[in-house]
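Phosphate ABC transporter substrate-binding protein, PhoT family structure dump, as promised
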Amino acid sequence: MRKMNKVFVLVFVSFLFVMCNQKGQKIANKESILKGSATVFVDETLFPILEDQVDVFESSYDAKIKLVSKSESEIVLSLFNAKSGIAVLTRNLTDEENKIFSQKKITPKITKFATDAIVFISNKSNNDTLIDLKEVVEFMQGKTSSKIKGLVFDDPNSSTVHYMNSLAGIKSIPEKGVYSFKTNDEVIKFVAQNKGMIGVLGLNWLTQPMPEMQPFVDKVNVLSVKAISGKKYYAPSQNNIAEAKYPLARDLYIINGQGYSGLGMGFASFVAGDIGQRIILKSGLMPARVPGRKIIIRNEISNEKK
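structure tokens r here:
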């Protein structure tokens, strides 16, 4: 009887050991750089291009990435509150933000993957397709303008608003003449339907609009901009962004605060790699690294007809 009990205990302990070991293996294998699931907080001005990246990434690997569109202020808070935050921002981390990561004993991995542009749009009925950045800044400072009836932004906490506020040297957008909605699509619709208004948004929303937004995009002009101390006007084209001629260009970053070799690392590498950079190039933005082109040189050319 005692022998039977000993055998039973031995079998039971062995069973527990196997189950615990399997459970540990499942946890360890739950996520890697190319497998598993992760949430990525995305600046709402960059959402279209990140959707394209995720679609291709998920079709190539056993991974699932959930994109959460938020304003810049909300992303920063979410990045620090999450246990393993991954974010896409239109700027690098500040010294204060890096200190918070240091307190959590995490060294964030930062990947620059593209250069975007803040653009101004006007109603198609407006024949003037030029705008002086100095005049926009002065309007935001409360000065009157003969050309600008009103400025229209997306979310008041967005990166676009923060960028322009910083440029104008103000803490918040003025109550008079400056308006804000919730999305970039709302900005496009409002400008398309209202003459004299100037919309301020991310370039990506114009280069990759949803099918239902195309009719509204067709009713707006993208304005060429003259820098505050400049003499010429430049359109937000890839070439002008690459040559640093367009005055409202901004670099884009993936901030990986996971603290381990997880899916955030794999996704950042993909976006910064050859395929991801080709997606950026096709979108109308400027990739951080221009994808190479293979050129085949032939010593002889055959004229034979087959």
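The chain has two domains: 35-115+250-287, 116-249.
lmk if u need the other ones
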